[in-house]
Structure to design on (223 residues):
């Protein structure tokens, strides 16, 4: 059988170095596979680095299709969070929720370790904030509820609640909550998304902006 000419061998070596295998090279160049194999074999003996470069340039492996069992779990998570508004807890007394919560914990651990592929993350994203702890979700729900209550209070009373001269316990609670938000904003501890939510719902909510004080605790709540 005729050997490949030097120019063809160099081309095949370059293609192999770039990550193509012998079969792909033979098909692209319309050559006999045995001739390509022989040429690449000689090239490897001449240059020990050839195989390493070939492997380094191999295309990234495509993620495998999702297992039906995994998809079923992801669907169950989506339904649970849609109904409960929260992620399942691995400490729940309910066997079904506990099992789903334990599975979710494993997905979070895999995600932190970089072991979830993009297809899995997209599937989990359909459930909502799956990668946020249950406690953080409860805290966020509580915060959003207080924001709605504050918005209703201002709409009904035409002023912000105060905790120092409150007319009711509910106003005192709202005034205290608003005080905490202003204090957090001054100390730059208020998350940007919460600050934006307050700005959108109640422009001018932070009456402390622009004030100068050595001690934040000396600042009073808004009136």
């Amino acid at each position: 059988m005729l050997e490949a000419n030097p120019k063809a061998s160099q081309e095949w070596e370059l293609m192999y170095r770039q990550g193509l295998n012998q079969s792909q090279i033979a098909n692209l160049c319309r050559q006999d596979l045995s001739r390509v194999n022989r040429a690449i074999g000689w090239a490897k003996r001449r240059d020990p680095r050839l195989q390493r470069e070939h492997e380094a340039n191999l295309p990234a492996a495509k993620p495998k299709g999702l297992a039906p069992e995994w998809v079923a779990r992801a669907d169950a998570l989506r339904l649970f969070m849609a109904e409960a508004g929260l992620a399942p807890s691995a400490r729940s007394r309910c066997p079904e929720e506990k099992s789903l919560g334990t599975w979710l914990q494993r997905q979070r651990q895999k995600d932190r370790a970089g072991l979830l592929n993009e297809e899995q993350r997209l599937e989990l994203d359909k459930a909502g904030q799956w990668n946020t702890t249950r406690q953080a979700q409860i805290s966020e729900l509580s915060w959003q509820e207080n924001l709605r209550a504050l918005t209703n209070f201002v709409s009904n009373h035409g002023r912000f609640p105060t905790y120092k001269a409150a007319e009711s316990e509910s106003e005192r609670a709202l005034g205290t909550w608003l005080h905490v938000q202003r204090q957090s904003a001054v100390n730059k501890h208020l998350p940007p998304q919460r600050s934006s939510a307050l700005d959108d719902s109640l422009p001018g909510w932070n009456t402390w902006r622009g004030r100068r004080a050595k001690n934040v605790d000396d600042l009073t709540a808004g009136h």
Observations:
- The CA atoms of residues 146 and 174 lie 7 Å apart.
- The chain has a mean pLDDT of 84.
